[in-house]
Design goal:
There is one protein chain. By secondary structure, this protein is mainly alpha-helical. The chain has one helix and no strands.
Length: 19
């Protein structure tokens, strides 16, 4: 579960930074 959350968080941050 933690891994999934981490992946999701990382992805979100990446998209936000990319924007």
């Amino acid at each position: 579960m933690y891994y999934l959350f981490h992946c999701f968080f990382h992805d979100s941050l990446r998209v936000w930074r990319h924007s």
